[in-house]
């Protein structure tokens, strides 16, 4: 085979030189990427493979549905808590449990906290080194760096002395000859475009962000007892509130804890708006000519919608993050998404290491099957335990291929912002328009690797401000005398119907997440999760559609064919999470 | 700010040790080792020039929450551990290099620092399907793990995954996920269980090893005693309510709002060895029980299969398809036996009476002891 | 008559029929009743430790120590049970022949095995009459061993393993028991489960035991209850 055009409109050509990148690092979990490069080192074919599987869906069978959140939470410790939320929602949906308003506010607050922290860590610690050349920052002039920093942000850590100090430490570190995590990086690669001063500023904030992210998550610790992996509860939250009386000090949530939460929210907003966003803009202004990585962006995007302002209401008008799907780039026609409709979300496995009775067809998650089947195609190079090259015409990934009405979809911050933008919602339209104006870019520039990264930043800011909203909502509810935190009416399994099904959906940091549960005789009969990175990292499907990762890599030129910097850049813009994707 | 810490000496300086005490430390070390005083200066020299210990942090089947926890450490700050105490030469989650540039590090460091690097493992290897449920660089993770372990000075098992197997090893463990000490059998594995472990416990163990240049004292199961020597329950601030017999009876009841004991809500604090109730989480902000939910026992072997989480008594026998608590099983068996006893007593009484009646009208042909007795 | 019992009775066969025999010496009887009492206490307190059934009461915790007291009673009874058992084992070495029966069922003896069959038939109401024993019959011996001796030792070992966790890493009970018992069963949680199952195992034994004692007292050819009170076994055979 040489050239084919996929039903979703991409031209792939696997004739050129094959390049394998495995492991893809600075992500969660194990991802392998193979590309074919033409003679100009332009990517003409991309193959993304999830190379781990744990079998959570199998393990959940037969368990107590009230325990499921804890198992699901361990699907991922990076988007920690998100799967737990999807799980408790699925169980509550199945059993018809209505949670109290306080629990809703706290869950929203914890989710927004998770977004803010996860986006921040992604930007600085998983993604920044794709744009920032650490070694180049040694050449920076600290005074000029200070000017740059003060020019773009009121953030106080910006004196020349501050940057000089960072630079001196960095220099000593480099001189020690032990580069640690920065060993063998692609320093000096021509694809790095930032001036030394911007690099130094970014490196300083890399370190500051590493210190600060641990503050944000303390909100989870207050309400869920720890982070990563805070505790959740079917029916509400376990963190009873007590703000007066002699035993309030020993209560999970009291005035001291509430004040801590409030102060963290203020500091989170400040950090994101004064450090993250300005850094993002500085980077974007330099890289705005690097317009690769479009893939499915702006074409097929989806959001399940989330952040119910009031409890138990998942209809569009109550969701602060909108729901919808855009197909074939029709921004003016946002379609509605119904997760219960068996014809909408379906998963295919003909290119995945799973078995279906009929692999030409997809299965809705309520009818889903997870039955592993690790077989390699005939064109595989290497052996079963030493794979040199995958055969993408056969099964080649532990990620299933979810499709919405048959379409491969991209999910995540950019998709959400696209839908919010298309719906004309000010929360999304205004920051996007402002950013584009500031950079002097058309709307189309949003649908790129850089746009994905930018949308994540805008979303971090959105989430940080929403944290304040949910906290204030909680406080006003408490002021009104409502302390209720859990609905225990259906806690006892004896009160449950014999057989029920439910859906829990969440917008996770990386995109749309759904859990489908089937409860029978008080036990989990079947459980299926379709996860953001399952969407984005999906392999091909029976009709030949390619997923978002593969599509976004196409047509990207590599500055140095021996260094996969641009591949990392585009894959990282999705913030891949493989433990999530395969679960 | 202090100079960049590159050597053991610098680490000690950064932690407040003066040059004088450092030299004293060296002479004491020499004395402790039974060496001539002259060796003190040699030790000092070695410590002043020794490179930072390379750490290779490998990931198997996991969720990366252990890494996430690690970077939450407040004292020492994760960045200080990474940049000053150790040399984190390989870590999929944080390292700049990828693909071949990453792979060569795993080949080179063990050669260059043979017997001197620490292997830290997050997650575990699956053994089913020839190990191919976790593939790195086209090969089974377990193969790389064994290779890198071969020349390590010490092996750290981060979290419940590496220590016990964790969630992927819960019944029916479809991938045959296996704790690392079942695969690395020729050297001690320091287990830091928890799902995830507390950040400061993770950095505490690392800094202990770097500062004192020795392994922490371990319990019989490979856990550092200093953090896993006591149960949550032994130092829980709700313990007075436990002893009083004051329990939360249902979520969000009065007791829940007053911090009563969560025992009846299934708290596993009494059977869980960890430092949550002492060190607490995220800089001492709270810990699971303080936040109102029972401990689920996340640092214990097999805790996933010792559920359900909201019952004080675990289910037993789930492997055989029956799931019941000890009381349900025992109570049922005892009732069955009691019923048997009652039935037996009834039959015996009938027999006894009939026999007595027969005894009243003995048949000459019926030869029993009683008959004889007459 | 004697020729018939000949093959059945192991020890009693040579003894004059009607003469009472001194079977349970004082230490055995004292031990038995002590064990019976502390066992009941251990069951009640143990049950409540795992499942504190009382409703919530409200107040400052320092006004109450209910759970603490229940646990204390359990631990004290546990100690008594264990020490009494040690004494009883010692007595098996120095006491009379009957003091060894529950520890050493004579599986190797053909006569013993025949008697086992006969007793089982007797309990299935097939055999018209009980055997005549001075000590325990074969079935009683094996049951005493498998259910009582093994069960109680199991409870003592798991009990002290749990106790060692509370006493702490350096304690003797930790060193002697917890250290190996916990990994043997998995973890502390599993030991709790097994300790509780062990209680039910013994409860089953006691139900059967007490029933059998009363039944035998009424239906068999020898005394039971009074034997465990005054030590003497009387026979209800002819001439009695
Ligand atoms: C009200 C309750 C009880 C009564 C009336 C009772 C009565 C008796 C009697 C009469 C015997 C002698 C049987 C014989 O001569 O063959 C005996 C033996 C025995 N009983 Fe009990 N018992 C009671 C409770 C218990 C309990 C709670 C336990 C232990 C948990 C127990 C353990 C034993 C043992 C181990 C023997 C054998 C003694 C030996 O041969 O060393 N008994 N019991
Ligand atoms: C026949 C003997 C015994 C019986 C029937 C018995 C019964 C029980 C039961 C049912 C429990 C509750 C288990 C749970 O639900 O977790 C328990 C707990 C316990 N038992 Fe025993 N037990 C016996 C002997 C002993 C002995 C000899 C000791 C040693 C001192 C002991 C020490 C303990 C301890 C330390 C606990 C745990 C208490 C706690 O978790 O607060 N037991 N026992
Ligand atoms: N993909 C994914 Fe997650 C997220 N965000 C889950 O739902 O990362 Ni671990
Ligand atoms: S031990 Fe728990 S927290 Fe750590 S990687 Fe495993 S599942 Fe995640
Ligand atoms: S809450 Fe848990 S750990 Fe704390 S005293 Fe109660 S049972 Fe023990
Ligand atoms: S659930 Fe885990 S975090 Fe601590 S309190 Fe229990 S060991
Ligand atoms: Mg799935």
What features would you highlight for this structure?
heterotrimer, A: 583 residues, 3-stranded antiparallel β-sheet, globular, B: 374 residues, Rossmann fold, Cytochrome-c3 Hydrogenase, Chain A, domain 2, 2 domains, elongated, disordered C terminus, binds protoporphyrin IX containing FE, binds NI-FE oxidized active center, binds iron/sulfur cluster, binds FE3-S4 cluster
Give your account of this protein's structure.
The complex is a heterotrimer of chains A (583), B (374) and C (240). Chain A is α+β, with helices and mostly antiparallel strands. Chain A is 38% helix and 15% strand. Chain A has helices at 56-59, 68-73, 82-95, 101-127, 142-152, 160-175, 196-216, 218-224, 255-287, 413-422, 426-439, 449-479, 532-536, 548-553, 565-573, 578-582, and strands at residues 3-5, 11-13, 17-21, 31-37, 43-50, 301-308, 319-326, 345-348, 381-383, 386-389, 401-404, 499-508, 511-520, 523-530. In chain A, strand 9 and strand 10 form a beta hairpin. The mean pLDDT of chain A is 97. Chain B has 374 residues and is of the alpha/beta class. Chain B folds into 2 domains: 8-228, Rossmann fold; 232-360, Cytochrome-c3 Hydrogenase, Chain A, domain 2 (Irregular), CATH 4.10.480. Chain B has 14 helices and 9 strands. In chain B, helix 2 packs across helix 3 (38-49). Chain B starts with 7 loop residues before the first helix and ends with a helix. Mean pLDDT of chain B is 89; it is low at 1-5 and 362-374. Chain C has 240 residues and is mainly alpha-helical. Chain C has helices spanning 2-6, 26-50, 66-94, 110-123, 138-167, 172-185, 188-219, 225-230; strands at residues 21-22, 232-233. Chain C has a two-stranded antiparallel sheet. At the A-B interface, helix 1, helix 4, helix 6, helix 7 and helix 8 of A face helix 4, helix 5, strand 2, helix 6 and strand 4 of B. The structure holds protoporphyrin IX containing FE (2 copies), NI-FE oxidized active center, iron/sulfur cluster (2 copies), FE3-S4 cluster and magnesium ion.
């Amino acid at each position: 085979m040489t050239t084919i055009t996929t039903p979703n409109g991409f031209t792939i050509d696997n004739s050129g030189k094959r390049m394998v990148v495995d492991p893809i690092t600075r992500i969660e979990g194990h991802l392998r990427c193979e590309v074919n490069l033409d003679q100009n080192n332009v990517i003409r074919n991309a193959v993304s493979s999830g190379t781990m599987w744990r079998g959570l869906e199998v393990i959940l069978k037969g368990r107590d549905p009230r325990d499921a959140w804890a198992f699901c939470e361990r699907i991922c410790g990076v988007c920690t808590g998100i799967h737990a939320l999807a799980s408790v929602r699925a169980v509550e949906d199945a059993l018809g449990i209505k949670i109290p308003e306080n629990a809703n506010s706290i869950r929203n607050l914890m989710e927004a906290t998770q977004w803010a922290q996860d986006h921040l860590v992604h930007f600085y610690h998983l993604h920044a080194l794709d744009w920032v050349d650490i070694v180049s920052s040694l050449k920076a002039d600290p005074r000029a760096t200070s000017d740059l920093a003060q020019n773009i942000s009121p953030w106080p850590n910006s004196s020349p002395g501050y940057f000089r100090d960072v630079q001196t430490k960095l220099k000593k570190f480099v001189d020690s000859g032990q580069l640690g995590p920065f060993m063998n990086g692609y320093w000096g690669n021509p694809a790095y475009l930032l001036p030394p001063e911007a690099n130094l500023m970014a490196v300083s904030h890399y370190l500051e962000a590493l210190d600060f992210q641990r503050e944000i998550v303390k909100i989870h610790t207050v309400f869920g007892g720890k982070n990563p992996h805070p505790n959740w509860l079917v029916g509400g939250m376990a963190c009873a509130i007590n703000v007066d009386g002699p035993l309030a000090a020993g209560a999970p949530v009291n005035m001291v804890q509430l004040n801590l939460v409030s102060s963290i929210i203020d500091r989170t907003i400040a950090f994101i708006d004064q450090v993250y966003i300005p850094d993002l803009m500085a980077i974007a202004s330099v890289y705005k000519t690097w317009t690769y990585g479009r893939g499915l962006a702006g074409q097929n995007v989806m959001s399940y919608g989330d952040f119910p302002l009031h409890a138990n209401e998942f209809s569009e008008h109550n969701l602060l993050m909108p729901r919808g799907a855009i197909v074939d780039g029709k921004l003016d026609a946002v379609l509605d998404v119904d997760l219960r409709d068996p014809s909408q979300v379906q998963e295919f496995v003909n290119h995945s290491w799973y078995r279906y009775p009929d692999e030409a067809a997809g299965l809705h998650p309520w009818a889903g099957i997870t039955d592993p089947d690790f077989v390699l195609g005939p064109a595989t190079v290497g052996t079963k335990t030493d794979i040199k090259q995958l055969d993408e015409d056969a099964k080649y990934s532990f990620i299933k291929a979810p499709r919405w009405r048959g379409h491969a979809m991209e999910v995540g911050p950019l998709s959400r912002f696209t839908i919010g933008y298309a719906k004309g919602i000010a929360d999304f339209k205004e920051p996007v328009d402002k950013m584009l104006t500031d950079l002097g870019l058309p709307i189309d520039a949003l649908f790129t690797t850089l746009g994905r990264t930018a949308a994540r930043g805008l979303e971090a800011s959105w989430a940080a401000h929403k944290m304040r909203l949910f906290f204030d909502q909680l406080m006003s509810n408490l002021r009104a005398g409502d302390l209720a935190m859990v609905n225990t009416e259906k806690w006892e399994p004896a009160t449950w119907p014999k057989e029920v099904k439910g859906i829990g959906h969440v917008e996770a940091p990386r995109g749309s997440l759904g859990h489908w549960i089937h409860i029978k005789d008080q036990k989990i009969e079947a459980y299926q999760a379709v996860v953001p990175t399952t969407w984005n990292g999906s392999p091909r499907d029976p009709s030949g559609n390619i997923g978002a990762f593969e599509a976004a890599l196409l047509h990207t030129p590599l500055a140095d064919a021996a260094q996969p910097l641009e591949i990392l850049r585009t894959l990282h813009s999705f913030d891949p999470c493989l433990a999530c994707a395969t679960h | 700010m202090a100079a960049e810490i590159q050597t053991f000496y610098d680490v000690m300086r950064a932690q407040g040790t003066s040059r004088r005490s450092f030299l004293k430390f060296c002479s004491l070390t020499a004395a402790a080792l039974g060496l001539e005083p002259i060796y003190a200066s040699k030790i000092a020299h070695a410590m002043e020039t020794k490179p930072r210990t390379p750490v290779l942090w490998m990931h198997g089947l996991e969720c990366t929450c252990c890494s996430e926890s690690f970077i939450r450490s407040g004292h020492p700050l994760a960045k200080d551990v990474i940049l000053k105490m150790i040399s984190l030469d390989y870590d999929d989650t944080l390292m700049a290099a990828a693909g071949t540039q990453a792979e060569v590090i795993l080949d080179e460091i063990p050669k260059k620092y043979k017997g001197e690097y620490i292997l830290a493992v997050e997650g575990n290897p699956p053994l089913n399907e020839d190990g191919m449920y976790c593939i790195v660089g086209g090969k089974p993770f377990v193969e790389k793990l064994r290779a890198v372990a071969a020349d390590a000075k010490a092996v750290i098992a981060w979290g419940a995954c590496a220590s016990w197997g964790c969630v992927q090893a819960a019944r029916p463990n479809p991938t045959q996920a296996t704790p690392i000490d079942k695969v690395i059998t020729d050297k001690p594995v320091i287990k830091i269980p928890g799902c995830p472990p507390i950040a400061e416990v993770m950095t505490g163990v690392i800094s202990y090893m770097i500062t004192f240049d020795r392994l922490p004292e371990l319990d019989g199961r490979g856990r550092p005693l200093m953090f896993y020597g006591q149960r949550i329950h032994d130092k829980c601030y709700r313990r007075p309510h436990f002893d009083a017999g004051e329990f939360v009876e249902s979520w969000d009841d009065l007791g829940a709002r007053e911090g009563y004991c969560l025992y009846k809500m299934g708290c596993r604090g009494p059977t869980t060895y960890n430092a949550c109730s002492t060190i607490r989480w995220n800089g001492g902000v709270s810990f699971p029980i303080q936040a109102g939910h029972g401990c689920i026992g996340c640092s214990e072997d097999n805790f996933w299969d010792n559920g359900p989480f909201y019952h004080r008594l675990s289910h037993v026998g789930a492997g055989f398809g029956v799931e019941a608590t000890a009381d349900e099983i025992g109570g049922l068996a005892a009732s069955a036996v009691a019923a048997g006893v009652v039935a037996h007593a009834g039959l015996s009484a009938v027999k006894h009476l009939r026999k007595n009646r027969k005894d009243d009208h003995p048949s000459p042909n019926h030869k029993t002891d009683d008959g004889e007795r007459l | 008559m004697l020729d018939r019992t000949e093959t059945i009775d192991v020890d009693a066969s040579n003894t004059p029929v009607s003469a009472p025999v001194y079977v349970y010496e004082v230490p055995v009887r004292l031990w038995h009743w002590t064990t019976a009492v502390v066992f009941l206490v251990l069951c009640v307190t143990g049950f409540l430790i795992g499942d504190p059934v009382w409703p919530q009461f409200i107040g400052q915790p320092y006004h109450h120590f209910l759970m603490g007291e229940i646990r204390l009673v359990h631990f004290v009874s546990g100690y008594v049970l264990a020490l009494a058992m040690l004494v009883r084992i010692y007595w098996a070495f120095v006491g009379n022949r009957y003091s060894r029966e529950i520890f050493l069922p004579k599986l190797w003896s053909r006569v013993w095995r025949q008697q086992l069959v006969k007793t089982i038939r007797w309990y299935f109401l097939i055999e018209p009459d009980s055997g005549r024993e001075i000590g325990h019959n074969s079935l009683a011996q094996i049951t005493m061993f498998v259910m009582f001796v093994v069960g109680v030792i199991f409870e003592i070992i798991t009990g002290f393993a749990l106790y060692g966790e509370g006493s702490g890493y350096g304690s003797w009970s930790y060193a002697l028991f917890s250290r190996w018992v916990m990994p043997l069963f998995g973890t502390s949680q599993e030991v709790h489960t097994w300790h509780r199952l062990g209680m039910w195992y013994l409860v089953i034994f006691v139900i059967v035991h007490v029933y059998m004692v009363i039944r035998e007292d009424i239906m068999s050819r020898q005394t039971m209850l009074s034997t465990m009170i005054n030590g003497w076994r009387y026979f209800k055979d002819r001439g009695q």
